[in-house]
Specification:
about 30% helix, RNR_Ribonuclease, endonuclease activity, alpha+beta, five-stranded antiparallel beta sheet, RNA-binding, nucleus, 42 strands, S1 motif domain-containing protein
Length: about 1050
């Protein structure tokens, strides 16, 4: 049928659902005849503004000649990238500017959307970059290149996609034949096998000649782009498995068992022989790993590299439980208990950035009787930890990693031994040994990797990104594939870039579509009068903000005045981000993907463009701003709210204060300005609010917070100290909590099915048990009946004259807590959403929309609840809201891990610099937190820095995990909460930075390390920046789990 110049075709599919029901799907498509090839000067096509490809034609009257040198260089060839190359070599596409002027078929982008959602969005952004000259070709809707699915009966998905690519490539080749000087169109795939498949589908030697692999591409372009040769060794490894298969490996030592096939794993899991789980490696002991399995109360432990069988941290694996004789009694993990970080970052990254294709979805089959029996046995086991081994990889982590390669002289004795075993087992010719290097990942939970490069010396002393590939059973290392160089090892920009990459933080510039959503007037934008007329005008009120020193993204401001009846009016005014970020817009979609601003010590990566975060939304002093406000009337006697109102407002802040300036104003008896008196009233009310919350059972927790003073270039920490809290910190904290609770109650009353809230589950018995046991040994009883009884127990765990012990107890209690998470109320009963740490029934995030997407959603819910706007269809879809909450939780975890890694990096640099300056030892006082198999975990009193005193060349540490004590150097017995004198030794071993703590002696009560061993940073000063200061959430809420 012809409609509007297009042919309509229908395709019918029968799909089996998880329930077993078979449904019939009919897809209707319209095939057009006028889709252009994308070449801007093609005389045969009707061109549009998306036609951006360049190619050099033979002289033609209708062809406009282009003289630009860069364009002329790009006219040499047009590449068509296939689905395999785009999926497996996306990082190469993104970072290799030599690959431009190429066609991205519609089939490929659809496939990428199903296989890797992050790469899908990245490719869409690349299409917008004009300099890359990428043409999106609708081959599925073009009559000349459309292929009917009926042609693929009985064929697999890979054959179907290759056939569509072959048809599209052949059309381009024939379409431009005779117009160009020579054959200029190339089909680019990623392996020799795929190339051979295409050659079998194509007809004509001239057409077949231009099917190329990544290696061919590098050779063709290396003369003009010599940097491509860095990729050559890694490009060759795409086919390394087939090369090794041709070798006689009969004399090679088998280091690992064969993996089961996918079908064998699936059948075994269904029959109950195996389990499917998430593999996680210990952070302190690579020989120790565990697997999280649905339906089991405890993790399965996997001990030894042989039992781990080449699984990588974050892989989804097939696990076989070992015989009961191999189960372990009294097993103590090497890692210190930290429930907040129990979910490994790899799990968050993997889940956030990968989506299963339709062909990978599993059927929901009930477990067999044998499996149920085994699970019951495991779940009822009380005396032993169940051990297991990996028998196959169901789904490997689809991620790239940062790190550095070792020169052969820098290899440790252990690494050299493994390297020699690799060369011998893998039959590497002696002439090629110098081409191989050992790559050391930044992530300590990953093994070393073997890489090959034609010029490995050019990669030494560099940080670069690599993808881990095949790991053969004869090799002590997996193979790695080079992606891109980050920069010189040791440079702050390079190290920070690696941290952000490691935790999957999106650092790409905002796309042009996002930028177009911003006000065209830019920084000169002014609030229109018609917008002011719609709002409550509070520009004459004495409003101010109180934030960390140097804060630029100011979310909130407050005011407090006395009303004629003697009561107080308190207002919390939050930046009205949703005025600029409209639901469903490109900027909204981008914010929904990023979810949060990420703070490193020396910089931040914004969720929204800087025009909003630092200017139009930031509540700067003396500037009119749009806000969303919660305003209370508070009784002057009881200091309880008697009325609450929610309004869109416009304010003009009197001052943007920092915590310490605000505190000095409050403490100055001679300061009676309106601004200062308002701050005093706020502090008075906040003090009562805090005491009232504590009486209700809110937990007072703590976390170590170190701040750094940076040099003028913000590249090196020159000083460090523990962050000092003042009263204005909890003043702001209390009013942010009050606003969040009030908004939570409002949106739940209107939208009980899809309100976005934040819950903090009660601690799990396993995580809290070790902490309770430690307190019991110190003579303190702990009740876990409720948050109130737990809070009272913590209050009793107090030692007069030992303030660091008292603080350390709060820190360790925080580590035993679960992480608070976002959720959609539709998934829970109201009784299940109690916030354990705050001891409140309902809680949400409303107060930081500049840096948290959850707050943006809550602003929209509140605006709809007070009849300002209506909700979009997406906001009323509880399934979409639940998925968005999952995304926000994952991104928030990644942001936290990135911030922690940045703090660790700067802590190392600080101590390294101090060591050089002092030309001597750094001696400090520390307290023992926990003793595990790995050694003694301690915290330095003056900095809040943690570390491990382990058995090493510097000291002999013998651990008794049953009694939780350690014998050091055969002489001194150490127990938890002992105070130690230690030496701090920053070292870099094979590019992995470590702060080693060396035991000197125990310190008896009353003894102290001499003052001045390491100078403390003074409060304030130029160049000062703190991770804690930058992260307003941690400063405005002592309770980390909020």
């Amino acid at each position: 049928m012809i409609i509007g110049g297009a042919d309509r075709v229908n395709s019918v599919k029968f799909v089996k659902l998880k329930s077993g029901k078979i449904v019939r799907h009919v897809d209707e498509q319209y095939l057009r005849k006028d889709i252009p090839c994308g070449v801007s000067t093609c005389p045969l096509c009707d061109k549009n503004q998306q036609c951006n490809l360049q190619i050099e034609f033979v002289q033609h009257a209708d062809v406009e000649m282009v003289e630009d040198e860069q364009v002329m260089r790009n006219r040499e060839r047009i590449y068509i990238v296939d689905h395999l190359f785009t999926l497996n070599q996306y990082d190469f596409i993104e970072n290799c500017e030599a690959l431009s002027n190429f066609v991205l078929p519609d089939t490929v982008l659809r496939y990428l959307n199903r296989k890797n959602i992050q790469s899908f969005h990245g490719m869409k952004n690349l299409i917008e970059q004009e300099q890359r000259q990428i043409y999106y070709f609708y081959n599925e809707n073009f009559k000349e290149t459309h292929v009917k699915d009926t042609q693929f009966a009985g064929k697999g998905l890979d054959y179907k996609l290759k056939r569509k690519m072959a048809v599209a490539y052949d059309w381009y080749f024939q379409h431009l034949q005779g117009l160009t000087k020579g054959n200029k169109v190339y089909l680019l795939t990623d392996s020799l096998k795929a190339k051979q498949d295409y050659l079998s589908m194509l007809k004509g030697d001239d057409v077949k000649l231009n099917v190329i692999t990544m290696e061919d591409f590098i050779v063709m372009n290396a003369a003009r782009h010599p940097e491509l040769m860095n990729y050559m060794g890694f490009a060759q490894q795409v086919d390394i498995e087939s090369e090794q298969a041709a070798k006689d490996m009969s004399t090679s030592e088998e280091l690992y068992e064969d993996h089961l096939t996918f079908d064998e794993m699936q059948i075994g899991i269904r029959e109950g022989k195996y389990f499917k789980g998430r593999f996680m490696t210990s952070r302190v002991n690579m020989d120790e790993a565990n697997a999280l399995v649905d339906g089991l109360k405890d993790d399965l432990i996997i001990l030894g590299l042989k039992n781990q069988n080449r699984a990588l941290n974050g892989d989804t694996v097939c696990i076989q439980v070992l015989p009961e004789k191999d189960w372990v009694r009294n097993f103590k993990e090497s890692d210190m208990v930290n429930a907040i970080d129990k979910e490994d970052p790899a799990q968050a990254i993997s889940a956030a950035d990968q989506e299963q294709g339709e062909e990978e979805r599993e059927e929901n089959i009930p477990p067999s009787k044998e499996k149920i029996t085994l699970m019951q046995k495991i779940n009822t086991e009380k005396e032993r930890r169940v051990t297991a081994k990996v028998v196959g990889i169901i789904k490997p982590m689809n991620k790239t990693y940062g790190g550095s390669i070792l020169s052969q002289q820098d290899q440790s004795a252990e690494t050299r031994k493994k390297f020699d075993l690799f060369m011998r087992n893998m039959k590497i010719p002696a002439a090629d040994i110098d081409l191989y290097r050992v790559f050391v990942p930044f992530n300590i939970q990953l093994p070393q990797v073997i890489v090959k490069a034609l010029d490995p010396h050019a990669l030494e002393k560099k940080r670069f990104i690599l993808r881990i590939g095949k790991w053969m059973k004869y090799s002590p290392f997996p193979f790695g594939q080079f992606i891109r160089i980050l920069g010189e090892e040791g440079k702050m920009n390079t190290e920070s870039a690696m941290i952000l990459h490691e935790f999957n933080v999106d650092t790409r510039p905002f796309s042009q579509k996002v930028i177009q959503c911003l006000p065209s007037a830019g920084a000169e934008w002014k609030i229109p009068q018609e917008e002011i007329d719609k709002r409550l005008d509070l520009r004459t009120y004495c409003v101010c903000s109180v934030d960390p020193i140097g804060c630029k993204d100011i979310d909130d401001a407050l005011h407090c005045i006395e009303l004629p009846n003697g009561n107080y009016e308190v207002g919390v005014h939050i930046a009205d981000v949703t005025h600029f970020v409209r639901a469903g817009s490109e900027i909204d979609k981008e914010a929904a993907r990023r979810c949060t601003t990420v703070y490193l010590v020396e910089k931040r990566t914004d969720m929204l463009p800087g025009l909003l975060t630092e200017n139009l939304c930031s509540i700067r002093g003396g500037v009119e701003r749009l806000t969303f406000s919660v305003i209370w009337e508070i009784d002057k006697t009881t200091l309880k709210a008697v009325k609450v109102d929610y309004r869109k407002t416009v304010i003009k802040s009197r001052a943007a204060l920092d915590y310490y300036t605000a505190q000095k104003m409050i403490d100055n008896p001679d300061d009676h300005t309106d601004l200062t008196e308002g701050l005093r009233r706020l502090l008075k009310i906040a003090t009562v609010l805090r005491d009232r919350r504590n009486l209700q059972g809110a937990l007072t927790l703590a976390s170590p917070e170190i701040k750094f003073k940076l040099d003028d270039k913000r590249e090196n920490p020159t000083d460090a100290s523990e962050y000092v809290h003042v009263s204005t910190h909890y003043m702001i904290e209390e009013f942010m909590l009050l606003a969040n609770i009030a908004v939570a109650e409002k949106i739940v009353s209107h939208y009980p099915s899809f309100a976005v809230l934040r819950r903090h589950p009660q601690p799990k018995e396993k995580e809290i048990a070790a902490f309770v046991e430690q307190l019991n040994k110190q003579g303190f009883e702990v009740s876990m009946e409720s948050s109130k009884t737990f809070a009272e127990s913590l209050d009793r765990a107090y030692k007069p004259g030992n303030p660091f012990f008292n603080k350390l107890i709060r820190i360790m209690a925080t580590r035993s807590m679960n992480q608070a998470v976002y959720f959609c109320l539709a998934d829970f009963d109201v009784a299940e959403v109690f916030h354990y740490g705050l001891a409140v029934p309902l809680y949400t995030h409303f107060t930081s929309p500049i840096r948290r997407y959850a707050d943006v959603l809550v602003h929209r819910l509140l605006a709809a609840a007070i009849d300002i706007t209506s909700l979009t269809n997406d906001m009323t879809d509880k399934f979409k809201m639940a998925r968005q909450c999952d995304q926000m939780n994952r991104k928030n975890r990644n942001a936290r891990f990135a911030s922690m890694a940045s703090t660790e990096l700067n802590t190392f640099l600080f101590f390294k610099n101090k060591q050089v300056e002092r030309q001597g030892d750094i001696i400090e006082e520390a307290m023992v937190m926990r003793i595990t198999k790995a050694g003694m975990f301690v915290m330095i009193k003056s900095f809040g820095v943690e570390g491990l005193i382990a058995d090493s060349q510097y000291q002999k540490v013998q651990v008794d995990t049953e009694k939780e004590q350690a014998l050091v150097n055969g002489a001194e017995l150490v127990r938890p909460f002992d105070t130690l004198k230690i030496k701090i030794l920053p070292e870099s071993v094979e590019f992995r930075r470590q702060i080693k703590f060396i035991y000197i002696s125990r310190i008896e009560v009353g003894e102290q390390v001499g003052a001045g061993d390491v100078e403390m940073a003074e409060e304030g000063g130029a160049g000062e920046q703190s991770l804690s200061e930058a992260k307003k959430s941690s400063k405005k809420r002592k309770n980390k789990q909020h």
